[in-house]
Design goal:
The structure is a homotrimer. Chain A is of the alpha/beta class. Chain A has 2 domains: about 80 residues, Udp-n-acetylmuramoylalanyl-d-glutamate--2,6- Diaminopimelate Ligase, Chain: A, domain 1 (3-Layer(aba) Sandwich); about 210 residues, UDP N-Acetylglucosamine Acyltransferase, domain 1. The first copy, chain A, has 4 helices and 40 strands. In chain A, the strands form 6 sheets. Chain A has a 12-stranded mixed beta sheet. Chain A has a 10-stranded parallel beta sheet with strand order 9-12-15-18-21-26-29-32-35-38, with no helix packed on it. Chain A has a 9-stranded parallel beta sheet with strand order 10-13-16-19-24-27-30-33-36, with no helix packed on it. The longest helix of chain A has about 40 residues. Chains in contact: A-B, A-C, B-C. Chains A and B meet through strand 22, strand 23 and helix 4 of A and strand 4, helix 3 and helix 4 of B.
């Protein structure tokens, strides 16, 4: 794929400032972009770097003065970047429709004709899969689970029985959905598993990374709300209910029966104790440990997690400690002198 | 499956208080249970919620006064709950015995007749699998590894060579057993892998979640003791020895050559440094980092982990800091006045 | 495999002190070694244990006096240990060359003749695989990805499209390479995925553990430098560039666009925030959270990570707090007495 700068500007509806004749074949970062690469600048901090960049053109939100390079001025740089990346995305062979002859699809399964099922996949009885979904090689979908349309399960994803997955859901390789949760009762000297009769509900437009685990519920469902995005190696325990449009970064662990509102953002490696509620739009910094419920819009950090203000307060106090110790020492000396003076007076 | 409240009481040996004619089809939580659902109350804190619940019946450990709802009184609510959940567990098709024709079983492998081996599984030479075990699709079991009877390996589990797995062991999807551990010596300018000649021993009734890793030993064996339960995404490094009936929560990492006693409980995301010993019954709070050995029965928290008392002490001290700073200021002022008085006297 | 102590000494070029006639069949730890086992001692701390050990011989760097046991004296115990472990490594059947008939190899793929491709593997179009590489059962290699020679991908590894893997690379079971990273822009009320046009480059002699994730780049490549070793369950986000000969321990998470120099060591469960640079040879202690860039050779610990000296300072200050509080109390009492004396004088 090769386009002139002018053609690109036209395709994404950008105002072109400068020469439109250069040829663009890729999108790249300011520092590494070559002549046939278009780059982008999201904020003014990167303007200096841009002037040194060899990029053939740049997408900007506001015209930059004194720049020889052609500029594509757009309203929303993020949206324009997605458009341009899609234009230059690597062209892969389309996955052929139909069921690979080595896949094992139970007779009672209902598979839409436009669905693709890969090599060695196992589709159990009463499974339903909607139009245009792609099931990768080595996947297993357990009895009675449902997938909507336009879903993509990459290779070796395992979905256990009785899970309900909506439309436009992406699950990347080696992820496990619907495993039995970690619930035991100690009875007669042994840990006995609490049966997990419930399932998992994954709503529309959810995207889940690679090597994640979403456990099924003891009763009712573990739920991941529409539009929520989950990074790699994330653990979602039994009976967790996650709202809509949340962002859950890599290696987060959410313990049993937590409830997250809409638009919650969890940084990488965050841990949330069981039975916690986190309100809409709350943001938890990376590596925090959430041990009590969090109100809507709150921003927490630390383990145990507190408000950023509390974290700062603690840091400030710690910094004052050496001075306090010194001051104590000086006060002590002054008292000694006073005591000596008093004794001399006797 | 549908039973009357009276039939249920009889099946689990409960004393029925109230009307036994209602029909029950599921088990559920107090808050979400509908009329055809039986719920349960483990402690008195939840009694208030119960009075508002629409549940058709409730399992309790002690009779609750002033409750119109039928009550099933049992000695151990946890045990009764497991029984009732099993009664209403979803009925799945039994896995057919035998070896799927697409599986590749080495001639020298000994597979019990009642064992089921799924699509595309690979069973290497000298592997032995006992009665009634179920090997999921896409599993790989390496040379000379042994599985006992009544085991269940879910889809895409990989067991490397020379691993010994006991009876009644469950390993959930996408878990890896017997990978080479992370042991390198820096020789002639490069990290050279230390060969891992040892194996993994997993004793009876161990249950391991999804997407876990248990590394093989450099020599001897990595051992997981009987009855120990391991959650998802857990990392057990080479030469770790875990005792019996431990509970290891999600995303825990145990570094090389650690020894855990019996009944140890590790909360989610705990990390244990290499060569640490943790005594019987010790409990480590979530996200702790264990950097020194832990005595039997100790309860630690924090990173680095200390006793809960120490953690509390630190928190208390931090809370006192602002008051200490204030007090210092007041003392300083009093000393100034004393000094001024002394000077005036001269 | 059985060798006499004398034969072993000869094979590894060691100086033998003592009787060379004993028969050795394995390598083991000082504490657990039996008579037919050779053990090793890396430093003098373990000499005491050695005297009680039943091991049939010992590899040492320096002759130990008063030891009846035969000693194999070598220059580098670590290197000798690797040699001896290789001698007694379990003999596994060689993987047969060639493509398993159940594997699906695209016509346009170029597979060296000596390569082995396992049951149910999927090799997409334009893939290239070099001599003597072994692709395990259930693996998937996406379009246009290249593997060098002498590589080993264990069962169920997934490599997405456009990834470039060098020579002598090992990737253990259930690991995912080239998944789409966690990059979203919030546009018109929804998180929209930023297309990931880039790939992953894994250089020669890299070893990656089980159940890891390495995300592909948005543009350019996520890079893992030659000789770097990665433990299990590690997350490498999009556009991360890792230098040569780094050691990344289990459950580490490295967020987007970080740059690590050569020889960096990250302890278990370390988290690194996005866009951080870590200089050559820096060492980060387990469970640390790196939130700002780190100079070459620095050693950090804690979350947020600071120098070990700062961590120690904080610990020391915290320990002084109770004494400071006590001292404040005593100063206050002394001031009270001074004030009383002054008042009495009036």
């Amino acid at each position: 794929m090769e386009l002139t700068v002018g053609q690109l500007a036209q395709q994404i509806g950008a105002e072109l400032v400068g020469d439109g004749s250069g040829r663009i074949r890729a999108v790249g970062a300011v520092e590494s972009a070559g002549e046939s690469t278009i780059t982008f600048v999201k904020d003014s901090r990167h303007v200096a770097g841009l002037k040194k960049s060899r990029a053939g053109a740049v997408i900007v939100g506001r015209r930059i003065e004194d720049l020889i390079k052609p500029q594509l001025i757009v309203e929303d740089v993020n949206a324009a970047l997605i458009e341009v990346l899609n234009i230059f995305a690597p062209r892969l062979r389309p996955v052929p429709e139909g069921i690979d002859p080595t896949a094992k699809v139970a007779r009672g399964a209902k598979i839409a004709k436009s669905t693709a099922i890969g090599l060695g996949a196992v589709i159990d009885d009463k499974v339903e899969i909607g139009e245009n979904s792609v099931i990768g090689s080595g996947c297993k979908i357990g009895e009675n689970s449902k997938l909507g349309k336009n879903c993509r399960l990459d290779s070796n994803v395992v979905v256990y029985h009785n899970c309900a997955i909506g439309d436009n859901v992406v699950i990347q390789a080696n992820t496990t959905i619907g495993s039995v949760g970690f619930g035991y009762s100690f009875i007669d000297g042994a840990h006995r598993l609490i049966p997990h009769n419930g399932g998992v509900v994954i709503e529309d437009f959810v995207e889940i990374g690679a090597n994640c685990c979403v456990d099924r519920a003891k009763f009712g469902n573990t739920v991941i709300g529409a539009g929520t995005k989950i990074d790699n190696l994330v653990q979602i325990a039994h009976n967790v209910v996650i709202g809509k449009c949340c962002l859950i970064a890599g290696q987060v662990g959410i313990a049993g029966s937590c409830k997250l509102g809409d638009g919650v953002v969890l940084g990488g490696q965050v841990g949330v104790s069981d039975n916690i509620e986190i309100g809409d739009g709350a943001m938890i910094a990376a590596q925090s440990g959430v041990t009590h419920s969090v109100g809507a819009g709150e921003q927490l950090a630390g383990s145990p997690a507190t408000t950023k203000r509390d974290v700062l307060k603690t840091v400030t106090l710690m910094r004052r400690l050496p001075k306090m110790a010194e001051r104590l020492q000086r006060l002590s000396e002054r008292i000694e002198r006073l005591e000596a003076a008093k004794d001399n007076k006797r």
